[in-house]
Amino acid sequence: MSDASGAPPGATQGSAAAAPESSQFNEEIVQACEAVVESFRRREISKAEAAARLFRALKLNEVVEAEELGEREQAYQSYFDMLEDYDRDLRAAAERSPGVASSSTHRNSGEAHAQDDEANVQERDDVGVESGNERTVNRNTRSLLERLSDSSPSKRNREALDEESDEESVQNDRRGRLKRTIDESLFPFVSSSAEDTPELSDDLQKTLVLKENYTRDLAVAKQRVVCSPGCPPVPDSVWLDVLANRFVDLDKIFSAVYAVDGDNKNSVKFGDFELSGLPSKPKKHIERHGHWTIAWALYQRAVLFVYPHREKELRTYYDQINGFFAAVSEHEAVRVVNLDRAIRGEVGRSNTLLLSDFSHFNHLYTMHVVGSGASAQSSTTAPPSSRRGTGVRRPGSSSEACIRFNEGRCSSRNCRYRHVCSLCSARDHVASSCTQKTSGGPNADRRK
């Protein structure tokens, strides 16, 4: 608990006064971080869990300003150093403690080893905590703000690092001897995959071969791609999905075209740990044919860069989707956008489909484009009472049908007239395609 002056626990009046006034860390964040360090010192949580909790407590994924982000990263480094210090103290104490003598009674060798190992672990924990108490008291007397004001993180002792490295190498060797290798011959899907392979097209087999190779280490594959001179200018966040042949959100590519601040990636890496914040949502969304064409051109370049044999597949798909856009009115283009997302999502989840296999996507066309489709009605059709039920109407709005809309000349989202058929008031077609045509409509003399 902090005192009334708001200084962190263990800080004196002088240290609190000397802290920089520009610090944006409040008492709640300080207490949360110190609680995480204390839980790790008591061995209540693992080092990885402690690092993750510090990342969440400092809210690194919510910071957008560079100055504040740098300040919080410095705070994270300070607390992570505390975790490293505690961990090193416990390891050193465990090395200095003598082993527990084996029992004088004759027991089963397996049971004896298990109980001795358990006793050794308990004794190392007790000795480590006791030997680290004195250093813990001295360390906690330092104010958090004093640690943040240090010009650089605390330097590790080289000898301690060497000892820790030697110990870790020994432990890794033991794990390697004890680790069981997986028997791939028992995989039930291996034989079926081998039998189905000849039935796949040549292009699909080439895609699966490259995908299998890339997914062995996506990080390395991505590093080679983004460092290549011919790397297409797509956002960094989409490359893993492109390499793994998964669904790629074209909204991210479309947003990047108009972005002025580059890719924002909130991540901090300390040793073997890399903590990354959630990716930001796209600021722009594809709603029209032109939007989709801009994003598709860049997406196609990225795919062909790592899957060069797919040119015919992508060209065929583009021609088909382009035809769908031409077949619907401009205000219904979003249906084709949703169809594209659905098709690419299904192909990304399958290893047996190409984007050009349109005979497999008839149900998606019905769902998203056809007026009676479930998705089309839910996204574009709403009962008239739903708008009136809100009690909110645009100034000067009218309940009459828009004649210009029925003539295909109005696509405004803020039109004061209703964009429905002037003959039957349906939302999925216009008067020229209405089956209830009569000689003139009830609003035939109405002009916008």
Report the count of strand segments: 2
Q: What is the overall number of helices?
A: 19
What value does the Rg take, in angstroms? 32 Å
Helix-residue proportion: 40-55%
Overall structural domain count: 3
Order of helices and strands: HHHHHHHHHHHHEEHHHHHHH
Distance between the termini: 68 Å
Q: Please summarize the sheet with the most strands.
A: 2 strands, antiparallel
Give the amount of beta strand, in percent.
under 5%
Strand line-up of the largest beta sheet: 1-2
Mean pLDDT: 72
The gross shape turns out to be extended
Which residue ranges are poorly predicted, with pLDDT under 50 across at least 5 consecutive positions? 1-24, 99-116, 127-131, 133-157, 380-395, 438-448
Structural class: mainly alpha
What do you see in this structure?
- The protein has 448 residues and is mostly helical.
- 54% of the residues lie in helices and 2% in strands.
- The protein contains 19 helices and 2 strands.
Question: What keywords describe this structure?
Answer:
single chain, 448 residues, mainly alpha, 3 domains, two-stranded antiparallel ribbon, 2 strands, extended, disordered N terminus, disordered C terminus
Please summarize what this structure is.
The protein has 448 residues and is mostly helical. The protein has helices at 13-18, 27-41, 47-58, 66-96, 109-140, 144-148, 158-178, 188-196, 202-214, 218-226, 239-243, 250-258, 289-306, 311-327, 333-348, 362-368, 374-380, 384-389, 403-406, and strands at 267-270, 273-276. 54% of the residues lie in helices and 2% in strands.
